[in-house]
Write a structure and sequence with these properties.
two-stranded antiparallel sheet; eight-stranded mixed sheet; Rossmann fold; 10 strands
Length: 183
């Protein structure tokens, strides 16, 4: 009987850590940025990913113009991700994104998602988007709106193909798209 209670408490704790920074956010971009930073705590990148050493920055890139860039920069200014200083770069194409650990594709560039997916195939770059149906098109984490609430979905098979391991704790909070995770 203790196991269900532990799961319930862990679920609430994870939800609180993901949602807590959202309450102080002033706009949608800040909310998404807070979620993205929290997501990194529940995702493992391969050790050999880009040959990163502890001193190398964890690079979050934004493809296209989007207010999330400023929100991510505010977070990166005071945050270490995976034991590395965080930085944010604006990129102009998929080739540049190969040097990123995380790529946020702005709504204005989601039409490029098939090409981005092809260019970054089998690279350990977490692709994050916001819009209907984008997880099915190659995004690994996709935000979507349900009324006035922000939700997210995870394409587990895309993440797995890129060598990223997503914690079951995070998966429990998401809508799963694509193939179901192995037990």
């Amino acid at each position: 009987m203790a196991a269900p209670w532990r799961r319930l408490v862990l679920g609430f704790a994870l939800a609180a850590t993901l949602i807590a920074p959202v309450f102080g956010a002033r706009n949608a971009a800040e909310i998404e940025a807070a979620f993205i930073e929290k997501f990194t705590h529940y995702i493992e990148w391969p050790e050999e990913s880009r040959g990163a050493t502890p001193g190398d920055p964890f690079t979050m890139c934004v493809l296209g113009r989007d207010p999330i860039q400023d929100a991510l920069e505010s977070i990166a200014e005071f945050t270490m991700i995976k034991g590395r200083p965080a930085r944010v770069l604006r990129v102009f194409g998929a080739r540049e994104a190969q040097a990123c650990d995380l790529l946020y594709v702005a709504k204005t560039r989601t039409g490029d998602l098939p090409r981005i997916h092809t260019e970054l195939a089998h690279r350990s770059v977490l692709i994050v988007t916001h819009g209907p149906g984008l997880a099915e098109q190659g995004a690994m984490i996709n935000f979507y709106d349900v009324g006035d609430r922000l939700r997210f979905e995870i394409n587990v098979s895309e993440a797995r193909e890129s060598g990223l391991k997503i914690s079951a704790r995070l998966l429990r909070l998401a809508r799963i798209v694509g193939k179901e995770p192995a037990p």
